[in-house]
Amino acid sequence: MRDASDLKHARLIETIIENRYQSLYHMQVDLKDTTRDYYVTDYGVRAGLLVLNGNRVLLTKQYRLLLNDYSLEIPGGKVEENEMPEDAAIRECFEETGVLCSRLNHLVSYNPSLDNLFNPTHIFLSSNFEVTDKDYLNEGEVVGCRWLDLEECFRMISSSEISDTFTMIAVFAYLHRIQQAEPIHIKDPKRRNC
């Protein structure tokens, strides 16, 4: 499914707005005894890339309207028509940072919302890259990029200096992957938290 208007179990009532960045749909679903209306914002499929250089991660610096400030984020963006998420992650990273990655590994896929936001998200991991001479700052979207130590990245997430969920999920998924390589010790296997 490329966009929310393709949902087979829902009726598209109206396309309220549609542009190259987003669509807003009024949709209806028949449930047991009622019909429910939904207003769905569709940003399309998104892909991002957690690029590792030893113990450092590559982050972009971009202005974000709702923060009225700059945000440190992993490179990523919209998957274009007929583009695979892996290819979009490579393209977005190159466009935003001038770093060209290869040999991607899938890290995590998720949906940021399940009722009113269509934005399936795929995050990949790579430590295979080439830093090119591409001038990414001329694109107007990114004002800088930097390599940040993973421990500093965790600290900035904990202190809310990094508040972008895209980046947070990527970093935590990577941390989980690292921890899976080490055994997890359970102090009391009989104790259950429900």
How would you summarize what this structure contains?
The chain is an alpha+beta fold.
Oligomer: single chain
Report the structural category.
alpha+beta
* Number of E-state strands: 13
Termini distance? 35 Å
Helix content: 10-25%
* Portion in strands: 35-45%
Q: What is the element string, with H for helices and E for strands? A: EEEEEEEHEEEEEEHH
Number of domains: 2
Mean pLDDT: 89
Question: What is the 3D shape?
Answer: globular
CATH topology description of the largest domain = Nucleoside Triphosphate Pyrophosphohydrolase
Tally of contiguous helical segments: 3
CATH homologous superfamily of the largest domain, by name? Answer: Nucleoside Triphosphate Pyrophosphohydrolase
The CATH class of the largest domain: Alpha Beta
Largest sheet: 7 strands, mixed
CATH architecture of the largest domain: Alpha-Beta Complex
> Roughly how many Å is the radius of gyration?
19 Å
Low confidence ranges: 184-194
Task: Provide an overview of this structure.
The chain has helices at residues 85-97, 150-158, 165-180, and strands spanning 11-18, 23-30, 35-42, 46-53, 56-64, 69-73, 76-78, 99-102, 105-110, 117-118, 121-126, 128-131, 142-149. With 194 residues, it is an alpha+beta fold. It has 2 domains: 4-42; 46-180, Nucleoside Triphosphate Pyrophosphohydrolase (Alpha-Beta Complex). Strands 4, 5, 6, 7, 9, 11 and 13 form a 7-stranded mixed β-sheet that branches. A 4-stranded mixed β-sheet has the order 1-2-3-10, with no helix packed on it. The model is unreliable at 184-194 (pLDDT under 50).
